[in-house]
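To assess whether the prediction recovers the assembly geometry, we first specified each molecular entity separately, as shown.
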Amino acid sequence: MPDQSREAIVRVRGLVNQFGTEIVHNGLDLDVIRGEVLGLVGASGSGKSVLLRTIVGLNRPVAGRVEVFGRDILAMTDTDQREIEKRWGVLFQNGALFSSLTVAQNIEVPLKEYYAMPLRLMDEIAAFKISIVGLPEGTGEKYPSQLSGGMRKRSGLARALALDPEIVFLDEPTAGLDPIAAGDFDTLIRDLRSSLGLTVFMVTHDLDTLFSICDRVAVLVDRKVRVGTLEQLLQDDHPWIRSYFHGPRGRAVLLSATEPLARPEIQVTAPV
Amino acid sequence: MAAATTTLVASEESGSLVLAATGEWLVATAADLDRRLSGIEVPKGRRVLLDLTGIDRLDTAGAWLLLRTEHDLTARGNIVEMRNLRASFEPLIDQVRTAGFVPPARHPRPAHHTIAGFIARIGEISVGLIARAYSILGFFGVVCATAVRLARQPHRLNVTAIVAQMEQTGVNALPIVALLTFLIGVVIAYQGADYLRFYGLESYTVQLTGASILRELGVLLTAIILAGRSGSAFTAQIGTMQVNEEIDAMRTIGLDPVEVLVLPRLFGLVLTLPMLTLCANFMGIFGGGLMAWSQLGIGIPQFLNQLSTIAPWSFWIGMIKSPFFAVVIALIGCYEGFQVAGSAESVGRLTTLSVVEAIFLVIVTDAVFSIFFSSLRI
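The predicted structure of the complete assembly is given in tokenized form:
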């Protein structure tokens, strides 16, 4: 467990988000610790995506403080913002690939933006990223409209990983994937985390993903989050959390996972 | 800081070449390292030691560079050995190694940059145009068949939808149509009077303005404005529904998209375009009259008198053309909407195409009418 260094990459304090008269978050606090995989769950419409968008600076909250890498996201110069954007990667729900570019060109966009690199090297790096996210050879030449949903997500992840970020934000990475592809995606995230020391913040509904790769889980209830390890949350007696984990689906996953929570030994080997 | 120490040093050691990598092997330094790596000359068959003791930080780009070097040299017949890799980097190297070596994707290069490609492209476009004309004709057939079927069951006709379309394409377009034709009337009368005065014929300004507006400009301008305003809206609306799978949903429920989407638009436009043309004619002549009065001092009775010398056929020719233009605009707008496939990007592309095509076909239709009427000598 990443307890050896409790450095919080993301620190959210007293966050308030409101749309019209509807209060989505009210005094929400959350930390994402370096090296962990944090899963964010909550009912539909409870503001999971809004929280993610707020952290990456796409949504300006009514009140509160959001720090990423120790810097206040809400009060930042453009140069600082660019420095931070180099260090994170974001995967949107449907991949959000640029539709006029091929997959390889999509991956090269951040490389081109931040580093003066010879074209050949950029092509090689793009090809390698395509292969590391498990896409078949030749995907790089295709356009997003030629890809299936799962391939689009993988391509989006490849683009999010283009700059070797320290943290990636994933918005429902396994939603809409078949169970095999979803399982592959989990394995991929786990491998990347152990080899790159990646920190992962993911919004997910997938109980399998939660049980197999998340170190901690944050549950959005009552406009705040309750954070804990799965074992802790299983003991929680908040009605929504109980019905989430102890409902028929939760029980099924729980049963198959009770053999010492099929979580592999995770060694945080962040590039020192 | 450390970027200065990020290097690759080649040295000799007991018969093998040692490449000592130090510093930060990251995506930020990759371009520089790539240059250094390609600068190192390794004789064929030489034993190479990659000494990784000095690497402080490593990410996938750096790992990729190391493995690429190993891979390339091995492929050339060199024996390569990596040594002193820090244990903490091993999982990364392993993962990069499993990802393997994939040839980089080719960038799409437009084929028409060669002469053969250029000629092929002309052919491609020509064949595409023919196929397109064929397909539009087919769509026209489907729309006609649906309209005939509907004529047998008139109760299925959705009057509300037609009226709604008439409001959107007609009433809402009225101000812009009126203003533009008024201005055109002013311009023609003003410019025409100038030229006619040269020949001493300025008293014919009214006839010139009236005939050109009634016969051609009123209806043509209205049609072009509607092609830009409503034809594009048809494509965008139907195209967006296509992307959202709404049209597929309609089909599964048993609704006919042509009946539900195309016919109200078509009928709406066929009814509104003549009315708008009427209004355009009036505004154009009004603008011309205003100019004749202020520039040439032609009063209302004289103006009306001169106007009445224009053959009434000029007015009817304009009015006869207008429903045909309406069919062309509605048909193209809806057809291109149904052509949308895949992404939202194609909605934009086809909307542009629909406007260009509709204006083009309106003018072609106008030319055909011109020939037709002149052969009838009217």
